[in-house]
Design brief:
Layout (H helix, E strand, L loop, with lengths): L1 H7 L1 H4 L23 H4 L6 H8 L23 E5 L5 E5 H12 L3
Antiparallel strand pairs: 1-2
């Protein structure tokens, strides 16, 4: 997850996930501070929402199109992960790895 993040996300979101990547200054819409996802969701990491944003189910205006801009990089074998409420959801292995990494970045 950390390697995928470093390769595809850190340029905008920053190595620490705080939104301060090298490209942040030239973007019209500031990249999200990914370290505050759980805090902004009442202290629970919003796994389902993050999956929907990464896999393109939920479009992001800041990306100009459905995310991911790097679509093929986040495809892969499907696996199940458990949501905050105990429900299980299937997503690609790369997205599951990214979710795991994002959870480690939370403040």
């Amino acid at each position: 997850g950390a390697q995928l993040f470093a390769r595809h996300c850190a340029v905008c979101h920053g190595a620490a996930g705080d939104g301060g990547g090298p490209m942040a200054g030239v973007l019209l819409i500031k990249p999200a501070d990914l370290t505050r996802l759980a805090a902004a969701s009442g202290g629970r990491f919003p796994t389902a929402r993050v999956i929907a944003r990464i896999d393109g189910q939920e479009a992001l205006v800041s990306h100009g199109s459905p995310m991911p801009v790097y679509g093929p990089f986040f495809e892969g074998p499907r696996m199940s992960i458990t949501l905050e409420d105990g429900e299980r959801v299937r997503t690609s292995a790369p997205i599951a790895l990214l979710i795991g990494h994002l959870k480690t970045l939370q403040q």
